[in-house]
Amino acid sequence: xxxxxxxxxxxxxxxxxxxxxxxxxxxxxxxxxxxxxxxxxxxxxxxxxxxxxxxxxxxxxxxxxxxxxxxxxxxxxxxxxxxxxxxxxxxxxxxxxxxxxxxxxxxxxxxxxxxxxxxxxxxxxxxxxxxxxxxxxxxxxxxxxxxxxxxxxxxxxxxxxxxxxxxxxxxxxxxxxxxxxxxxxx
Length: 186
Prior knowledge:
This protein is α/β, with parallel strands linked by helices. It has one domain (22-185): 3-Layer(aba) Sandwich (Rossmann fold), CATH 3.40.50. Helix content is 33%, strand content 16%. A six-stranded mixed β-sheet has the order 3-2-1-4-5-6, with helices on both faces. Helix 5 packs parallel to helix 6. It is globular, with a radius of gyration of 17 Å. One of its GO terms (biological process) is fucose metabolic process.
């Protein structure tokens, strides 16, 4: 099965070799649970006297699973700096029907690791940008830039409201809890 976002144009449903592509929608999650981020966000929460910056792996998994209207099965691309993780079990604990993938499972880890960190980030950025649904952290510049570009793409298409259930390219912040333990659109 070939994975593609349904937001990418496909000519007559076929690729250059003439085979039909099956469009598989996916969610991209910018999962900020790396060691460096957790140290930074805990200090920032203390300094600002708030508790909505850091999210544990379990909180992120639960909140992504609570996105209203998310059809399953759905592939979940995990944009995370694997080398900075304390916990390697990011593929465990996802709601039934959510199929988490990270670079090792996709088989692109060898290619990905050949590039410097900034190029790796650019690859994750593009994958997140093209996702049918994006979930990030509202205090992350990376996540905010993706949400901004996705919003600009909607505006260019003539969308006048980015709120509601049937928005193309929705973006959510997993660290801002919305109604019914769901995520807040960002």
